[in-house]
Amino acid sequence: MVDHNPTAESAELTDGFHLLIDALKLNDINTIYGVPGIPITDLGRMMQEEGMRVLSFRHEQNAGNAAAIAGFLTKKPGVCLTVSAPGFLNGLTALAHATTNCWPMILISGSSEREIVDLMQGDYEEMDQLAIAKPLCKAAYRVLHAEDIGIAVARAIRAAVSGRPGGVYLDIPGALLGQVMDVVEGAKSLVKVIDPAPAQIPSPASVDRALEVIKGAQKPLIILGKGAAYAQADEVVKDFVEKSGIPYLPMSMAKGLLPDTHPQSAGAARSLVLKESDVVIMVGARLNWLLSHGKGRQWGEPHSTKFVQIDIEPREMDSNVEIAAPVVGDIESSLAALSQAMGDDWAGPPSEWTDMVREKRETNVAKMAPTLQNNASPMNYAGALGAIKRVIDQKPDTMFVNEGANTLDFARSMVDMHRPRKRLDVGTWGVMGIGMGTAIAAAVETGLPVLAVEGDSAFGFSGMEIETICRYKLPVCVVVFNNNGIYRGTDQNRSGGEDPAPTVFVEDARYDQMMAAFGGEGVYADNPDALQRAVMDALESGKPTLINAVIDPKAGKESGNIGSLNPTSGAVSRNNAEALEIIKQKAAQ
Known about the structure:
Elements: E1 13-15, H1 16-26, E2 31-34, H2 41-49, E3 53-56, H3 60-74, E4 78-82, H4 86-101, E5 105-111, H5 114-118, H6 129-133, E6 139-142, H7 149-161, E7 167-173, H8 174-178, E8 180-182, H9 183-188, H10 204-215, E9 220-224, H11 226-230, H12 234-244, E10 248-250, H13 270-276, E11 279-283, E12 306-311, E13 325-328, H14 331-342, H15 351-372, H16 381-394, E14 399-403, H17 406-414, E15 423-424, H18 435-446, E16 450-455, H19 456-462, H20 466-471, E17 476-482, H21 511-517, E18 521-525, H22 528-541, E19 545-550, H23 577-588
Parallel strand pairs: 2-3, 2-4, 4-5, 5-7, 6-7, 9-10, 9-11, 11-12, 12-13, 14-15, 14-16, 16-17, 17-19, 18-19
Antiparallel strand pairs: 1-8
């Protein structure tokens, strides 16, 4: 191996290891998430030696989830480094997750040599990783020669962040890292990416068309998506919303762009505004399943709502319903153009509409308040989340990570956010298991305390990473809502056999003792007051902490708020002939 600080005998050479490190550092990428192993163990060591921060995880999917959310938080590609074949496949789930959520990420994986893979000669962990990755990410590249490392890294960065952001795969055959070349020529081969994500200015005609549609609205609504949060154009978003006077509804990861307590917030009147609105302005949001594709039961009469959609990707328009006024451009440029075009005499929406929304919001908030104040033991979700809400209200800069079924669904509506990009959750796919990777990256990238509120099922996907949290001494407080199972801990084995039902876990498990085993703080809480005190203590101490929050096993409900997606929902028993016939009919359809 060639020394990067060579002696006189080898002063003219560098190698693939250091060219890759130098290419990343030249582009201000200094944090790596990954799992060491053949053939990238030495690469991780050298990265650390060269001043990069290398965080080693217990599973590649969790490292990938960390890299994905790092991209969301920083607008730079988060980088995940994995071994070949199985390690690559583990990281690939996170890469697809990043692409679906439109977050910039680069998955770098070691791989077998091409001449062996192509002849299928049975190399160690042999796999054509590039071919597998291509359908699941925005772009995929393989580097075969050391002199191409600089341009490959540059292409990966530009592909990840330009236009609609997404995931990029970079394939690194093991032999590449050991290739040597002249140190001067190697330095010349590196590329500093200039303006990797240029602004995309919307056409004046599209801005005028959007304003005409908005002016004709009697019941307009703004929906803020996580794309608006990713843009980091917070003041521009705020100015547009407040100048327009239109009620706004934030999707979960857009919560906090404006405080949930803002007078124009319609979060507590979600059902009303979706059903009644006649014009909806989509800002960095998509009409996917999270919004019933723009035509589900939660909306008004079919095709009666007009949509204005702001998105940097033209192909997003008309994805589910007709978009009356597509505005193709980046969030900052588009909203700034709309605000300017409104002028100083913008009238805003009719007061009948804003009063209706305000009254509904205030009524719903008042109804919910006593529920959030209950101190029952064991806790229900409202009592437990009431405690979490009070913590976030007092510590609004806390990074709040959230996943689960009921734990996620209820927290979206019960826990107010006050700052942008402080709520991080499962995103577009609704995928479980992002919790610990997301919490680790949130702590690393922001330096702020992190509160991760997890369902016990969701925690199980990545729970071993609490050792990683302890190893790096990160200020992360994990709260596990422990109700002994998935949805509820009371399901029964319908066969009468000894095995527990598929949705039931070990009764009264002590997750807090797991954290204590790795040197962190483990706390047991069975009522909201105790939970609130424990979370506050953990956030103030900055010590790795896990709180086992005891939830009534009967408190949950099936599939959270998306039980309709279960195709056999309502079937009573396998021995019930009528239920079987229903299942057969659904399958035939």
